[in-house]
Amino acid sequence: MATLNQAHTPPLKAGRSPRTAHKGRSTREAVAVFVAPFAVLFLLFYAAPIVFAVIQSLLTVEREGTFGPPQQVFGGFSQYVLVFQDQAFWASVGRVLLFGVVQVPVMLGLALLFALLLDSPLLKGKRFFRLAFFAPYAVPGVIAAIMWGFLYSPSLSPFGAVTSEVNFLGGSLVLWSIANIVTWVYVGYNMLIIYASLLAIPTEIYEAARLDGASNTQIAWRIKIPLVTPAIILTGVFSIIGTLQLLAEPQTLRSFSSAISSTYTPNLAVYTTASVPNYNLAAAFSVVLALATFILSFVFLKATQRKVSQ
Question: What is the rounded distance in angstroms from the CA atom of residue 290 to the CA atom of residue 292?
Answer without folding.
Answer: 5
